[in-house]
Specification:
The chain is built from 19 helices and 25 strands. Strands 1, 2, 3, 4, 5, 6, 14, 15, 16, 17, 18 and 19 form a twelve-stranded mixed beta sheet that branches. Strands 20-22-23-21 form a four-stranded mixed beta sheet. Strands 7-12-13 form a three-stranded antiparallel beta sheet, with no helix packed on it. The protein folds into three domains: about 5-120 and about 255-430, Rossmann fold (3-Layer(aba) Sandwich), CATH 3.40.50; about 130-250, Domain 2, N(10)-formyltetrahydrofolate synthetase (2-Layer Sandwich), CATH 3.30.1510; about 445-530, Formyltetrahydrofolate synthetase, domain 3, CATH 3.10.410.
């Protein structure tokens, strides 16, 4: 068997084209590309504004079954499908999220696709890239500093220091900073209070940047952020601290989408990266809407499985941005289906057709859920060398029984050549006019009913439950004019329930809502179900232990 190259070796060997050539394929003049080196650039706000008069291409969502340690390959399939569409003669672009440094040095080691379906420059994308996350971190922490500074200089807004809701952020996994006490050290340092840190991707500023449509909309949303409450529980906004203008200045360049390329030199927009638990887990509206004005097909992804990522993509991003997806691709692997069927990770290399059939219940649930939104779906089986013909046949038969089709894809090993069949079938599905997209619930539905609707229709739970204080808080927000907002469910990505160990397709479970948070700037209400961390910790053996510079000064260990 030939030696398998690592992702970074494959990426390093790629023949990149100057970013101006990549942009020219989408009709972006070189003067409207703001280069960061030779292989990446931001697209100017002036060009984006002019492009808005163009018609829209077709939007394809790539989602997946619930993630497992076995791997699903959602980003890899997104990139591969974009390359495949270009291979069969379609003008296609890819839209994915930027990578966070926290997971990069923690568990993942990288997030730009894999094998021969990658976006490059891989090293830059996984590290500092164009500085967007640093700008978001700076803008968020400027607001944090202004809050404590305002309190120190007399607190004219009468902020109740016990009710400051705005925490600090950093783009790294550091459990020691989850809960802190700040302003210690006496009078010169302010008034001590409890505080804490979240990871940058969990910041509301990140969610706002990814939902904003232009600089004016960005500034308005930043001003709408609720940072604290007074003793009478009335909200204090970022604009009350006159923070919105300066925050917008820090985010001026970060709002512009980043253009890079795939291994096959096809255009890819990589922009934004909101946490798929606490926020909506999709790349930016600016990137997606711009790509739709420039390409005939746009392939994008949503975080985690379809129960979180696709639901939020449809109910939050598409609702707010007026997007109408033409088709969806649901990614599954034989390995992950076997895990859902009860097989241990160390036994995944052994054929087990019955476990595959049992695990297909998870896939079937996601197919049903995507179709609830009126979007036609097709299944992509992301191929691993250990997959057997019998196991593949079992998945195809199961999906056919659901009235849909499953296509075996070998893009990881073969690039666009390995995903041509899926590309043709996605085109046929998108051009059939079968999509009748509609969100799951109406804007005017009460907030708790929205939560309960997602629980019953997407998670197949018996009901959502919440104590009196949570329900009272939701009613208060409705009275304050926030009742029209969509809900953003924060729960484990590993299960339809709030128990990460309950795999497959459970039904009848109760989903407890232990807390609700208003993200007034982003424009959604977060319902926290179960134990969700907004500041992850590092694993026992973090990926950072294997990341280093080799003797040639090249980065090793990213994957």
């Amino acid at each position: 068997m030939a030696e398998v190259k690592s992702d970074i070796e494959i990426a390093r060997a790629a023949r990149k084209k100057p970013i101006q050539e990549v942009g020219a394929r989408l009709g972006i003049p070189s003067e409207h590309l703001l280069p960061y080196g030779h292989d990446k650039a931001k697209v100017s706000a002036e060009f984006i504004a002019k492009a808005r008069k163009n018609g829209d291409g077709r939007l394809i969502l790539v989602t997946a079954i619930n993630p497992t340690p076995a791997g699903e390959g959602k980003t890899t399939t997104t990139v591969g499908l974009g390359d495949g569409l270009n291979r069969i003669g379609k003008k296609a672009a890819i839209c994915i999220r930027e990578a966070s440094l926290g997971p990069c040095f923690g568990v993942k080691g990288g997030a730009a696709g894999g094998g021969y379906a990658q976006v490059i420059p891989m090293e830059d994308m996984n590290l500092h890239f164009t500085g967007d996350f640093h700008a978001i971190t700076a803008a968020h922490n400027l607001l944090s500093a202004l809050i404590d500074n305002h309190i120190y200089w007399g607190n004219a807004l009468e902020i109740d220091t016990r009710r400051v809701t705005w925490r600090r952020v950093m783009d790294m996994n550091d459990r020691a900073l989850r809960e802190i006490v700040c302003s210690l050290g006496g009078v010169p340092n302010g008034f001590p209070r409890e505080a804490g840190f979240d990871i940058t991707v969990a910041s509301e500023v990140m969610a706002i940047l990814c939902l904003a449509t232009d600089l004016k909309d960005l500034e308005r949303r930043l001003g709408d952020i609720i940072v604290a409450y007074r003793r009478d529980k009335s909200p204090v906004y970022a604009r009350d601290l006159k923070a919105d203008g300066a925050m917008t200045v820090l985010l001026k360049d970060a709002l512009q989408p980043n253009l890079v390329q795939t291994l096959e030199n096809n255009p890819a927009f990589v922009h934004g990266g909101p946490f798929a638990n606490i926020a909506h887990g999709c790349n930016s509206v600016m990137a997606t809407t711009t790509a739709l004005k420039l390409a005939d097909y746009v392939v994008t992804e949503a975080g985690f499985g379809a129960d979180l990522g696709a639901e939020k993509f449809f109910d939050i991003k598409c609702r707010k941005a007026g997007l109408k997806p033409a088709a969806a691709v649901i990614v599954a692997t034989i390995r992950a289906l076997k895990m859902n069927g009860g097989v241990k990770k160390e036994d995944l290399g052994t054929e087990d057709v019955e476990a595959v059939k049992h695990g297909c219940a998870n896939l079937g649930r996601h197919i049903e859920n995507v179709k609830q939104f009126g979007v036609p779906a097709i299944v992509a089986i992301n191929h691993f060398h250990s997959d057997t013909e019998a196991e593949i046949a079992a998945v195809k038969a199961y999906v056919a029984a659901q009235g849909e089709e499953a296509v075996l894809c070998r893009h990881w090993a073969e690039g666009s050549a390995g995903i041509e069949e899926l590309a043709h079938k996605v085109v046929a599905l998108a051009e059939s006019g079968a999509s009748q997209f509609a969100p799951l619930y109406a804007d005017e539905m009460p907030l708790f009913d929205k939560i309960d609707t997602v629980v019953k229709r997407i998670y197949r739970g018996s009901e959502a439950i919440a104590d009196k204080a949570v329900r009272a808080q939701l009613r208060q927000w409705e009275e304050q004019g926030y009742g029209h907002l969509p809900v953003c469910m924060a729960k484990t990505q590993y299960s339809f329930s709030t128990d990460p160990n309950l795999r497959g397709a459970p039904t009848g479970h109760v989903v407890p809502v232990r807390e609700v948070r208003l993200s007034a700037g982003a424009g959604f209400v977060v319902a926290i179900c179960g134990e969700i961390m907004t500041m992850p910790g590092l694993p026992k053996v973090p990926s950072s232990e294997h990341i280093f510079l080799n003797d040639q000064g090249l980065i090793e260990g990213l994957s």
